[in-house]
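Troubleshooting: if your tokenizer reports a length mismatch, compare your output against this known-good record of 257 residues.
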Amino acid sequence: MLPTPSTSHVSYDTIYEPAEDSFLFLDTLSSPSQTAWLQSRLHRGQTPLLVELGPGSGVIIAFLTAHARTIFGTDILSLSVDVNAQACLATRTTVQKALDEIKQASTSSSTGSSAYLSSLNGDLTTPLRSGEVDVLVFNPPYVPTDSVPAFLSTGPTSGKITFEESSHLLSLSYAGGADGMEVTNRLLQEIPTILSQRGVAYVLFCRGNKPEEIKAWINGWEATENWSWRAETVGTSGKTAGWEKLEIVRIWREERT
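Known-good structure output:
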């Protein structure tokens, strides 16, 4: 089992604390079936670019970056985008600590030379270039709420954060609006543009998000004579009651045979 990155330095007053959804990503993407699939897809071409949207504490992207050779079969470049500037700072530290720990624990070159490029403060894919993301990871705000909190790009602050500010920052991590899908729907619309030709997206849904309908919709996206869109569940939390059951859906272009 690959070690989970430490997030002991993270203030959970303003940043989402790693929970079942976070660990579902770690378990799923490091599973033998997913590592084999990813390695077969990414083994050729330039160094893959991994992007996590809304990393929060940074535990997922730190895990994937630190263990890139085991999971992807190659070194990677990675970066993250978060609307919460505090999360951007926390993620950068989490990833660096994870990389340092891996290097200290190994005396061989097997740790590789994967690099974390940046923590970008922004809204979903707006800071990214089209067609350049090879692996996209998104643990969205999926809780149904009356509305989605406004994104205020204020940048990092060294001053004391008020209770109202901390509450707002935390709400960005869970409040998904109508059916918990307002933010996720925006991201899904951007996937065809942001992914590279070999790109793949891993997006988390809860039962209340109606993932079966979402997968059917994606499988019907516009295709070409050479490839079509595919979406399938590759990891579940195992819960069977209510909307709390979680699942990770893999979205990619599949070549026609």
